[in-house]
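Review session, final week

We close the course with one last complete record, chosen because it touches almost every idea we covered. It is Metallophosphoesterase, a protein from Candidatus Fimenecus excrementigallinarum with 408 residues. Go through it on your own first, then we will talk.
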Amino acid sequence: MHAPKPVSIQIPADRLKIGIISDAQLPVTRRALAKKDTYLQSLRRALAYYREIGAHMVLFAGDIGDLGSCFAFRTYARAVREAFSGADTVVQTIMGNHDYWGKGLVGALPHRLMFRLLVGEKPWSHYVVNGYHFLGVSPNCGSMTAGYKKVLPWLETALANAAASSDGKPIFVMTHNQPRNTCYGAEDWGDDTLDALFSQYPNLVSFSGHSHYSILDERSVWQGAYTVFSTQSLSYTELEEGKVNGTIPPHAEEAPMGFLLELSDRTFRLRRLCFAASGVTEEKPDCPWEFPMPFVNDRRYAFGPRQAKNRPPVMPDPAAHARLCGDKVRLTFCAGTDDDFVHSYKVVTDTGREFLFFSDFYNGLTRMQSPVELSLPAADLADAGRVRIYAVDSWGAQSESFAEASLF
């Protein structure tokens, strides 16, 4: 691949505003879009919001389409043109693994060619905006775990050049996958080829999509040898395995989310936005992720110290209720409380069986419901007489208190 030369842009602004979104996974055909346009509407809302606030730049971290089809690429490009017609907004887009998938096209090259022709972008790009380096790094194939092997020589050179002129500024690197075992979701969906290179640059800040894991979880920022943020998605939320209500939990399409990055001489701040159909809102407005400038990786967002300060949740009401509804048992109880939020609930029977459920945090903390209702197959509780329900936070801390219900 040919290494693109950096494109230098100077914007007359004391504070840069940069939107960051990912994983639109637009329908593959016009017929599919006619049946369901939810993801396209989420993309349009996000772009319209960034236009409304005067965003200077928008980063899109891959998976334009559910497959890499001409229709998906064209639909994305049209949405961008319509949103920013007449504006000077810089839009940096990369491909994701889904953008390499699709029937009738063999190999990576045709998909990259379609991307270049229809989206009008190079798969690998390098912008320098007001002295900040932004590297857009598509994978070189549709691999889920090793998509960057052939990209690394270019990326090594680009990072070395960026580091030589970063002058106390972070170097932003946008990939589709996270480096493995970094932020929330990277243990399941991360790429194995990025960490060794990224670890050489303490002022590197990674943005990525792919996992769809909720950015409301404080583990969505990670700091070690470098800094990593995941962006969630504009399509649907997905979470880790092991819960009764599934990796794609109920109403997972209702809260598409992304970021607003604000950069000034004094501050690097990241705000979390929800692009719901009911309106765009800022989530957790009182606790944006923030760093002083010049940027220094002081590991303030390392997992260990934050987990050590964490307090376990509380179940405020000991009473729970159980009722039989057909072949299901429905449990109802008062929602747990936490210094952040209750991530999940553990149901423990008096026979020792355990069942884990996600709470509804992923659809927005102000929309979390109380009382909580959970359903289990009655057959799974056939030998039990009572259940206890504990709250668990995102760091894995479990409440000492519990709600208890008698079964039939």
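Two points worth writing down before the exam:
The longest strand covers residues 267-276.
Helices lie at 30-35, 38-52, 70-84, 108-119, 152-164, 186-189, 195-198, 303-309.
Good luck, everyone.
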